[in-house]
Amino acid sequence: MLATTGVVETGLSQRERLLARLRDSGVPMHRRTPEAQLVALRPEPERPPERPPERPVDKAPELRWDKTRLDVIQKVWGKGFIAPGGKKTILELVEPLGLKRGMRVLDLGAGLGGPARILAKRYGVRVTGLEADRRLAEAGRALSSRAVLPSKASIHSLAQRHEVLAPGAFDRIFSKDVLFTVRDKARLLAVAEALLADGGRMLFVDYVVAADGRQAPAVEAWMAADPARPAPWSVEEYIEALTGLGLSLRIDDITGETRRAINGAWAGFLARRRRPSLDRRAAQMLLDEARLWSRRAKLLRTGELRACRIFAER
């Protein structure tokens, strides 16, 4: 089983600012919504309070997957990864899928293909990875080729591989840290269910909010500032959608494990870092990544955001 632990948040100034950004006692990273500002400025009877000084607002950086960014991101999360993971974590997460040699597996939102290659090597399955971002798909395909796994862990741009999306084409479907960015999740889940062969199973790792959590000021601020443009569902919405498709399901809360993965990756990066320092552009990209995960880690710590493993089968 995955272990549960807390998150140590980090920030960058080269090193010092990284630590400061994610420190529990640091300045909040999220942007205040207009509603939150109005609440903070609510006047007292006969003596309106002074308007507090404006805090600098962090703009959501645009995600540009060029070589510099890919190099920086992999220094934090590991080769082939653009988010918390690693071989041990991936293998533990997919245990409910019951993978066996020769199975056909679809990886939705494959990124650089790290999980796909791990599954192909460990279980002897044939993984088709679909990635919406063309540059990520190209980089992932190149990594699979260098790992001598171009056919067993093939990574494709979603726009280029519509022909693989045939009914019953896959025995298993896997997705990690992607669905919370998809706005029409109901349609995606219906399409995924149609792709399953008889007896097929699906497993999604995703971030969820409470039933009314999208209206929480901190969550609204995160949704506005995060470059992934989150549109998270609640557990209740997942249950309704998946049971409506005739699937049986189990949902596990893995928030603690996710916080541990974030903590471990940043701690490992800081321990490995050597002089000379990153150039200015790479350092800015690293700072953007620290800000992104600072916001997510804070919501995971407060419980306003949770990480879940969602397992469904026919």
Question: Could you please say which CATH topology applies here?
Answer: Rossmann fold
Q: Which range does the strand content fall in?
A: 15-25%
- Structural domains: how many: 1
- What is the number of beta strands? 8
For this structure, the quaternary state is: single chain
Shape: globular
**Would you list the SSEs in sequence order as H and E?**
HHHHEHEHEEHEHEHEHHE
CATH class: Alpha Beta
Which percent bin holds the helix content? Answer: 40-55%
User: Over all CA atoms, what is the radius of gyration?
Assistant: 20 Å
**How many strands, which pairing sense, and closed or not: the largest β-sheet?**
8 strands, mixed
| Secondary structure tally, helices | 11
| Computed structural class | alpha/beta
> In CATH, what is the homologous superfamily?
Vaccinia Virus protein VP39
**What is the straight-line distance between the termini?**
25 Å
Structural summary, described in words:
The chain is α/β, with parallel strands linked by helices and 314 residues long. The protein has a single domain, classed as Vaccinia Virus protein VP39 (Rossmann fold, 3-Layer(aba) Sandwich), CATH 3.40.50.150. It contains 11 helices and 8 strands. Strands 1, 2, 3, 4, 5, 6, 7 and 8 form an 8-stranded mixed β-sheet that branches. Strand 2, helix 6 and strand 3 form a beta-alpha-beta unit. The radius of gyration is 20 Å and the shape is globular. The N terminus is likely disordered.
